[in-house]
Design brief:
Elements lengths: L4 E6 L2 E6 L10 H16 L5 E6 L10 H8 L9 H10 L4 E5 L2 E3 L1 H4 L6 E4 L4 E3 L13 H9 L1 H10 L3 E2 H6 L5 E2 L5 H13 L3 H11 L2 H19 L2 H11 L11
Parallel strand pairs: 2-3, 3-4, 4-6, 5-7, 6-9
Antiparallel strand pairs: 1-2, 7-8
The chain binds coenzyme A.
Length: 256
């Protein structure tokens, strides 16, 4: 359990709020666990018709907790890992998913948006998927979903060069529905969720199921996950995590 994700259900809308602002909402294993529990509950709890993701503080999420990655890289991490349960719950979600995104959205902070049905961003949003910077590879089926959404050239520049996309561009490229002023962001997402909560759930469910190849997405997540796990064990990745912790640029030339 963790207090770093708040779960509220009101008027058919489950709100999952990332609440670790001092770490820019870096996602720990425990946080993935609560997010996965929430999405799994949403699928079976008739009081939940829509799920909203939002975040406290100036950023949506700085992605996977890099201390956790470092612990996995050195074998120091033990216990149940929840990240894949969260990703699979995103892949299989039939309830509409809505997101409100401000500030940094790094790694899974961006790739999870590719599984959301309505996404609202503020102008200061900064979407990045810098997996190669960390000597890692894309996850959450983003190796397919991101180029499918924005085209290979843009997706490659985001993955391989770590190029950032701001809120306005995210909306223009179709990663988000709209770029709205920061002060209106949560209200806009909530209004969209309220609207969806009043729509016929059966029709929404079938529509979403038709629009997504959930099984193919889950299979790709497994394939990416295996390669991602292998990459975590590399000297390149260890150098990237150590460099972050030591607040210095990585030097990949010394690891081959
Ligand atoms: N994992 C763990 N801690 C993280 C984190 C992460 N992914 N991202 C940020 N933090 C921590 C920082 O270590 C810092 O902690 P401290 O105050 O105890 O020193 C705190 O959050 C604030 O981060 P800081 O780097 O000072 O904020 P910033 O505004 O200068 O930069 C980011 C924000 C997100 C650009 C930067 O923190 C960053 O690049 N983080 C790593 C993102 C990443 O690579 N994620 C994995 C993607 S696969």
């Amino acid at each position: 359990m963790t207090d770093h994700v708040k779960v509220e259900v009101e008027a058919g809308v489950m709100t999952l709020t990332l609440a670790r602002p001092d770490k820019k909402n870096a996602l720990s294993n425990a946080m993935y666990g609560v997010l996965a529990d929430g999405l799994e509950r949403a699928e079976t709890d008739p009081s939940v018709r829509v799920v909203v993701f939002q975040a406290d503080g100036d950023s949506f999420s700085s992605g996977n907790d890099l201390q956790d990655f470092a612990a996995q890289a050195t074998g120091a991490f033990s216990g149940e890992r929840h990240v894949m349960r969260f990703l699979k719950a995103l892949a299989g979600a039939t309830r509409p998913l809505v997101a409100a995104v401000q500030g940094q959205a790094v790694g899974v902070g961006t790739t999870m948006l590719l599984h959301c049905d309505l996404v609202f961003v503020s102008p200061d949003a900064k979407l990045t998927v810098p997996f190669v910077n960390l000597a890692l590879v894309p996850e959450a089926a983003s190796s397919l979903l991101l180029p499918a959404r924005i085209g290979h050239a843009r997706a490659y520049a985001m993955f391989a060069l770590g190029e950032a996309v701001n809120g306005e561009t995210a909306a223009a490229w179709g990663i988000a529905n709209a770029c709205v002023p920061a002060e209106d962001l949560r209200a806009r997402a909530r209004a969209a969720a309220d609207q969806l909560a009043k729509r016929p759930l059966g029709a929404l469910t079938v529509t979403k199921t038709l629009m997504r190849d959930a099984e193919g997405i889950a299979a790709l997540m497994d394939r990416e996950g295996e390669l991602f796990g292998q990459r975590l064990q590399t000297a390149e990745a260890r150098e990237a995590f150590t460099a972050f912790m030591e607040r210095r640029p990585p030097d990949f030339t010394k690891v081959g």
